[in-house]
Specification:
By secondary structure, the protein is an alpha/beta fold. It has 2 domains: 7-247, HUPs (Rossmann fold, 3-Layer(aba) Sandwich); 259-354, Tyrosyl-Transfer RNA Synthetase (Orthogonal Bundle), CATH 1.10.240.10. Helices cover 51% and strands 10% of the residues. The protein has helices at 19-26, 33-43, 48-51, 61-69, 88-104, 116-120, 125-141, 154-170, 174-181, 189-199, 218-227, 269-279, 288-294, 302-311, 315-326, 332-355, 358-367, 369-375; strands at 7-8, 13-14, 29-30, 55-59, 74-80, 108-112, 149-153, 208-214, 237-241. It has a 7-stranded mixed sheet, sandwiched between helices. A two-stranded antiparallel ribbon has the order 1-2. Helix 7 (125-141) packs across helix 16 and helix 17 packs parallel to helix 18. The termini are far apart. Bound molecules: tryptophanyl-5'AMP. Tryptophanyl-5'AMP is lined by residues 10, 77-81, 89-90, 92-93, 111, 113, 116, 198, 211, 213-214, 216-217, 241, 243-244, 253-254.
Length: 385
């Protein structure tokens, strides 16, 4: 791959992503100032990730907001592939999803893909089980409303969804699956069927589905938007985030399969400190003199980018850091200390909540209001034309 090129698929991200051109390539829309303000106004609050353009693109968010204002509402859907422990990149989209649930008081469905990852990775059933249980506890720690949230593992809930999946699968052919996802001769045939399964939750309610996720998942939603009308359903809406860049720099994304790139949700304060000090990519000058003279390049500096997009709410403090660091007054060591402190504050609160999630997990999977309703449902679809 020549320099400056990048590739984004639901399975991998390579190169330094140019997010503006990705919007053109995928055919999505940027969240402009007008939509941002409308979103915040209806929510009655601002959201950091949207405000700082970490969440930056969408399909049909304006339609979902119209329908919300008209009283019809919408529902949320997102998911996780249990192929490893979760890192902060994974959990941010869940925190964003919780924010929407809180502000709009809507149902959320969370798909745990213990089938997809078995097909797509070299992984045993025992590993999948271990990670699924752990990932579900991480997600429960985010603090969703247990009566309005349904977390399900595909292999367990499949009986309730299978009729609908059969109908969706009939509408997707091999050429679509190959051209959208790049499946090849060596790809497991399970993956050919997979887009039907990732799309079924968008049909769980009559209302419009809204999916908060990183933009890598968008190819699935393109297929859904092509076929939804055939079943008399609304096209799903999606709100796309960028990727949290790898700790090691702006190429690729944070990924649990590349440990150097990631801060894991169960990292201890000491591990965070060591990783940030050793691995966090610096936009600062190579030598002290050079740094003092030229300052830091904020656009590639992991510490600055993470603080800006995810962690530091205080605009004034962020501006102070930007000014001092880009002018060379602040050193890389100093901004790393700030990042370590903020990361550890975030992780400590998350880990503490994770200690006490057993009851919530039970409710979100089986016993809460929405979960009980879902276990009684058979999800089927009827062809309208
Ligand atoms: P998975 O497990 O690869 O990723 C789970 C969620 O985390 C997002 N993500 C990231 N976001 C920001 N920065 C990163 N570095 C980063 N890495 C991953 C992903 O976009 C995703 O939102 N097939 C899916 C599971 C799934 C799903 C869904 C995801 C099933 N239904 C509906 C989103 C919405 C998967 O393997 O995700």
């Amino acid at each position: 791959m020549p320099e400056q090129e990048f590739d984004v698929t639901p399975f991998d991200v390579e190169g330094a992503v140019n997010y503006d051109s990705l919007v053109d390539k995928f055919g999505t829309e940027e969240i402009d100032e007008e939509l941002k303000n409308r979103f915040f106004e209806i929510a009655g609050d601002e959201n950091l990730y949207v405000k700082r353009d970490f969440v930056y693109s969408h399909r049909g968010l304006d339609n979902a907001l119209d329908e919300y204002e008209e009283g019809e509402g919408f529902f949320l859907y997102t998911g996780i592939g249990p192929s490893g422990k979760m890192h902060i990149g994974h959990i941010i989209s869940f925190y964003f999803t919780r924010w929407i649930q809180e502000k709009f008081d809507v149902n959320i469905y969370i798909q745990v893909t213990d089938d997809e990852k078995y097909w797509d990775r070299d992984i045993t059933d025992e590993e999948i089980d271990k990670y699924a249980e752990d990932n579900i506890r991480e997600i429960a720690a985010v603090g969703f409303d247990p009566d309005k949230t349904f977390i399900f593992r595909n292999r367990e809930y499949m009986g309730n969804m299978y009729d609908g999946i059969v109908k969706i699968a009939e509408k997707i052919n091999n050429s679509q699956a190959q051209s959208v996802f790049g499946f090849e001769g060596s790809t497991s045939i399970g993956m050919n069927f997979w887009p039907a399964i990732q799309n079924i939750p968008t049909f769980f309610e009559e209302k419009r589905c809204v999916i908060p996720a990183a933009i890598d998942q968008d190819p699935y939603w393109r297929i859904q938007r092509d076929i939804a009308g055939k079943f008399g359903h609304k096209k799903t809406a999606a709100i796309h985030s960028k990727f949290i860049p790898a700790l090691t720099g702006p190429e690729g994304k944070m990924s649990s399969s590349k440990p150097k790139t990631a801060i894991m949700l169960d990292d201890s304060p000491e591990q965070v400190e060591e990783k940030v000090k050793k691995q966090a990519f610096s936009g600062g000058g190579d030598t002290l003199e050079e740094h003092k003279e030229e300052g830091a390049d904020l656009s590639v500096d992991t510490s600055f980018q993470w603080l800006r997009s995810l962690l530091l709410e205080d605009d004034e403090e962020l501006n102070r850091i930007a000014e001092q660091y880009s002018s060379g007054e602040m050193m890389t060591g100093e901004i790393k200390e700030i990042l370590i402190e903020e990361l550890n504050r975030f992780l400590e609160a998350h880990q503490e909540r994770k200690e006490n999630v057993d009851q919530k997990v039970e409710k979100m999977m089986y016993e809460g209001y929405l979960a009980r309703e879902m276990w009684e449902k058979n999800i089927d679809l009827e062809l309208k034309r």
